[in-house]
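Late entry, written up from scratch paper. The run itself happened at the end of the previous shift, but nothing got recorded in the book at the time, so transcribing now.
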Amino acid sequence: KDAIECGRVVINGQKVSSIHEIVKNGDVISHTLHRHEPPVTAQPIGIVHEDNDMIVINKPAGVPVHPAGRYNYNSIVEIMRAERGHGWNPLPCNRLDRLTSGVMFVGKHAKAAERLTNQIMARTVKKEYVARVIGDFSEGDVICDQPVMQISPKLGLNRARASGKDAKTVFKKLAYYPPTAAINGAELKETGNRSEKERLRDSQMEWKAKEGYSIVRCLPLTGRTHQIRVHLQFLGHPISNDPIYCNQRVFGPSLAAGDALSDDDEDIISRLSKMGKSEAAEAMAYHDEMMEEYNKRKAEKMTGELCAVCETPLYSDPGPQELGIYLHARRYACQDGNWDYQTPLPVWALPPAGMDGPVDTTTETDPMALVDEVGELKVDQSRFNHHDTAKYTQQPKPLWIMPG
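Output as recorded:
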């Protein structure tokens, strides 16, 4: 009724005089909708490979694959349709989280999409991701086989839980970069310049002891939702700008490291539900002595205002730091060796200014090579205690045993 009276519903392009207008055969009724959509990055969709059947893209972080929730035209499917013609129907064959970047397959026709989708579902495709995590990640091959359970479908929250679905990920450190203050061995004593209140605050944050960050190669052997993010959190090295799994205001000072048994899911859900609404999400990458300045930056949350046209609750625009996380799908390879597509390392995985480090992956740091060597991996449960995260993550030798 309101749409008719306001002229958003018209007949043959003309505003109707009342809601009792009689509609005749052949009349064209049009309804103009008013819609709000969050902004996404302007980074273009990269093309890794294209043939008559398939387009292999490098998905930018922050862009959802399909229209969903508040996103419609700002999605991979709709952007590609707009670029290549609205008569074409892009058919994504694999899914990446909105905040994740990297390799995706888009079928040009149904048969090609079905063929590759079946390959992925049959687990005959090897996937490799690269992540940037807090602290100095363990040397050697680290395997996490903690089951993953979906706690809240609405919030997209998953946790390591013994009663969850089987999940296994192989990790291998590519590089470690210490804090800027420790470059060239000239470690600066910054603590002397800090207030007692700041030192007390940091002593209560367990993650603060994990200085610097690591670039880690990740090979998921199963495909659970948020599997890599959950496993890295469990290992005590969450992705440093992850607004969910590296959020102290949601998980507390330990960031749920080594936690597979706690019964605080309802509290976690309650705190997480406030993020992006009444509170801005704060990942640990921004939770430091510059926190006060970060709070002044643009961050997405509900403003408390309503749209004057449609009365939709309004959100502030997200800041650049909220448009993605440090997780990139770098490589997809056919197990039979028929194809192998990969991208360069993302900018955030390259050595910081003034420091040396790898600008590409190496055979020595390849988790795929580990799986190829030993076949089916079996974790030796006697080698670690799930409740002792330090022991679990600092083990210098591979956390696996040869089959048989």
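The two ends are 72 Å apart (CA to CA).
(Scratch paper discarded after transcription.)
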